Amino acid sequence: MNTTHAVITAIGGYVPDTILDNAALEKMVETTDEWIVARTGINERRIASDPNMATSDMTALAIKDLIEKSGIDPTEIDCLVLATSTPDRVLAPTAVVACEKAGLTNAFGFDLNAACSGFLYALSTGAAFVESGRYKKVLVAGTDKMSSIVNYEDRNTCILFGDGSGVVLLEANTEGLGIKDNIFRTDGKGVQFLSVPAGGSSLGSTEDTVHHKQHYVQQDGRTVFKSAIKGMTSACNDVLQRNNLTADDIDWVVPHQANLRIIDAVGQNLGVAKEKVKVNIQRYGNTTAATLPLVLWDYQNDFKAGDKVLFTAFGAGFTWGASYAIWGNLRTQQN
């Protein structure tokens, strides 16, 4: 009996039209284009400037893009797993709203929050649903409206983040293709170095928390930088070793797009050629849970059936991990 794996068969994405480039940030905070590019590799990021556009809207638009390109019937979708740190509301789940907006009338949906590692964790969750045989078509999305939790007076964080959404369709495969392995890790001590302090059950919303801007992202950049390189490198090496692979066996590395220096350092540590590492941070900045699927969306024509792909991410919590997959054919390539 052949083993069932979940394979990515369609990809969709959405980024807002409004571009916030480094020249605009120079007028908002004390910074320069040269400094931002040298420190982060970011030239511009997309911002959902329409205040009425929520995370659910961007998710629905990414799903509609996937549906249009793949020709899939939206009523055939069984489930939506949505990774996000910026839900429409604390209650109810944003995935439920996104299902309604995207016309997924037969799907159930739920949110998953693992910060920048969210899509990777959600991908594993969706894959388990497919591998179990209970569900045939599962959407996994990563969406964040980071502009809603970024303080544009804080030059240490506002230069980093953008808004966007990416989504993939998972289906069963018994031909050796699909998601083969995952390694995930967490360390709760990392909360003090990267978080949004207020708005949850540990520190509710008050006049004082609003006054002190505690509803915005706060981070210790140096600690996060070092921890991300260490965590992503370690997880990737563990996955490679467990699957009897070397860096030479990998065709593509798809890393979280947090900082170009982090991406370069991880690639160098792994011994992976730079041309194998997919990067689009220069266009979008750090879109948190959306970075990995947006990389797939941008470069989907580069991935060929049989390619060995290594995913890795690191986020607040701390959360981090790596996944190994053998690429399949997209529905658009099969038509």
Automatic annotation (TrEMBL):
Cellular localization per UniProt: Cytoplasm
Keywords in alphabetical order: Acyltransferase, Cytoplasm, Fatty acid biosynthesis, Fatty acid metabolism, Lipid biosynthesis, Lipid metabolism, Multifunctional enzyme, Transferase
Pfam families assigned: ACP_syn_III, ACP_syn_III_C
Beta-ketoacyl-[acyl-carrier-protein] synthase III C-terminal domain residues: 240-324
Presence of keyword Lipid biosynthesis: yes
Catalytic activity: malonyl-[ACP] + acetyl-CoA + H(+) = 3-oxobutanoyl-[ACP] + CO2 + CoA
Enzyme type, top EC level: transferase
SUPFAM superfamilies registered for this protein in UniProt: Thiolase-like (SSF53901)
Gene Ontology molecular function: any one: 3-oxoacyl-[acyl-carrier-protein] synthase activity
Enzyme Commission number(s) of this protein: 2.3.1.180
Region (ACP-binding): 257-261
GO biological process, one term: fatty acid biosynthetic process
Residue ranges of every copy of the Beta-ketoacyl-[acyl-carrier-protein] synthase III N-terminal domain listed in the record: 110-188
Catalytic residues (positions): 116, 256, 286
Protein role: Catalyzes the condensation reaction of fatty acid synthesis by the addition to an acyl acceptor of two carbons from malonyl-ACP. Catalyzes the first condensation reaction which initiates fatty acid synthesis and may therefore play a role in governing the total rate of fatty acid production. Possesses both acetoacetyl-ACP synthase and acetyl transacylase activities. Its substrate specificity determines the biosynthesis of branched-chain and/or straight-chain of fatty acids.
Assembly with partners or alone: Homodimer.
Domain notes: The last Arg residue of the ACP-binding site is essential for the weak association between ACP/AcpP and FabH.
Entry similarity comment: Belongs to the thiolase-like superfamily. FabH family.
Record-given protein name: Beta-ketoacyl-[acyl-carrier-protein] synthase III
